[in-house]
Amino acid sequence: MKTTLKEYKIKDICEGFVYNELEAKGLFGLSGTLTIQPEYQRHYIYADGKKDVAVIESLLRGYPIGLIYFNKIGEDKLEVLDGQQRITSIGRYVQEKFAIKDENGMPQNFTSLSQDKQKQIMDTTLLIYECEGKEDEIKEWFKTINIVGVPLNEQELLNAIYSGEFVTLAKEEFSNSQNSNTQKWSAYIKGNANRQEFLAEALEWVSKKEVGDYMSKHRKDKNIDQLKNYFSSVIDWVSQTFIDVEKEMKGLEWGRLYEEYHKKGYDPKKVSEVVQKLYADSCVENKKGIFEYVLGGEKNTKLLTIRIFSEAVKNSVYASQVAEAEKTGVSNCSHCAIGHDTNKNKIWRLDEMDADHVGAWSKGGKTDISNCEMLCKTHNRAKGNK
User: Fold this and answer.
1) Which CB contacts under 8 angstroms, 24+ apart, belong to 220-225?
2) Coil/strand/helix, residue 9
3) Cβ pair 252, 303 in contact under 8 A
4) Global pTM value
5) Hey, CA dihedral for 209, 212, 217, 218, is it positive or negative?
6) Alpha carbon distance, N-terminus to C-terminus of the chain
7) Are strands 34-35 and 77-82 parallel, antiparallel or unpaired?
8) N or C, which terminus of the chain has less Cβ within 10 Å?
9) pLDDT of 219-251, one tens digit each?
C-alpha cells in the first residue's frame, strides 16, 4: 500500500461540505471530491456537546488534532479512511450546527467568533496521509490504525470488512436513529443505533453468533429480508409472551431464548402473573433470571439466585437444634435422628451442616428463620427440592 503525506487547509476541506442530519452522516467535502463517510465507516457519534466541542476548542488553542487518513479511490476522488468524526465536527461547526462556549461561558457559533478566530480555524492545516492500495489492504489498514477518540467496536469493524450492498441496507434499517422501531427495540437490546448495537444483535441472532461468516456469505445480497424477518420474529415473540416490559429484560440473550422456547405455547396473562409474583418475592435476587425461569417451566431455581439464610439465622437455628438434641439424646440433624445408623445420636458441628428450607422455596417456602432447618450436608443434598 502506498502512502503520501499531504497538507490540506480546513477551508478547502469544508468547501462543499454536506451533512445529512437524518442519517447522522458527514457526506462530502473538498468541493464534492471527498466522501467523508464511506459505507464501511460508522455513523457520526461526536454530536454530544463534548467531543465535537473539544475538536473546535483544540483548533482555537492551536492543539494538533492528529493525523487523518484518506483513501484515494480514483483521479480526484478520495474517501476518509480515518478522521471522519473530526472532519464532520469541523464541517458542522462551520455550518452553525452547534456552538462552543467562550471564556465567559457564552455560546459562540462560528459566525459569532471574531474574524481572526474564524480565520484561524479556516487556515488551520491538517496533516493527511493519502493511501492507495487494494481493497483488502485498505480495510486491513483501517482495522489496525489508531482511531482518535472512540475506538471502533466489533460491529463497526465488521461493517468495514464486509462493506457492500448488504451492509448498506442493514445499516439503513438497524443503524438509523430516526427509525421509530428503535424505541421498542431498546426495551430488549442494550446500546443505540449509531454505534451499530441493534445491527450487531440482529446479526448475532440470525447467524447463531457466527456473525462474520453470515456477513461474508450475504455480502452481495440485494436485500436483507432474512435478517429483518428473523429479528422481527424474535422481538414479536418476546413482546407477545411477556406483556409487561421490565428493565431487566434489556440485554438478555433473546435470540438463544427464542430458539429454545418459541415452539412452546404460553398464556401471556399467566406468564405475567408469575413474573409479577417473582418480582415481589424478596428472596429472588437475580431478577434477570426470572424470564428464562418462567420460559423453562419454573424448574431451574438457580436462574433466580434465591437469597440464602444469613449467618445469624443459621447460628440461631443451629444452637436451638443442638440444645433440643442434647435434651432428647438424638442427632441435631432431624433426618439422622430418625435413622438407624451410627449417626442417629451424632451432634454435628456447624460447618458440617447446611441451612435448608423446610418448605421448598419453589413451593412457596420463604427464606426466613421460621422456615430454616439445619441438616447434615449428606441429607441436605439428598433432599433436593422435596
Assistant:
1) 220/164, 220/165, 220/166, 221/165, 221/166, 222/165, 222/166, 222/169, 223/169, 224/166, 224/169, 224/170, 224/173
2) strand
3) no
4) 0.56
5) positive
6) 70
7) parallel
8) C
9) 999 999 999 999 999 999 999 999 999 999 999
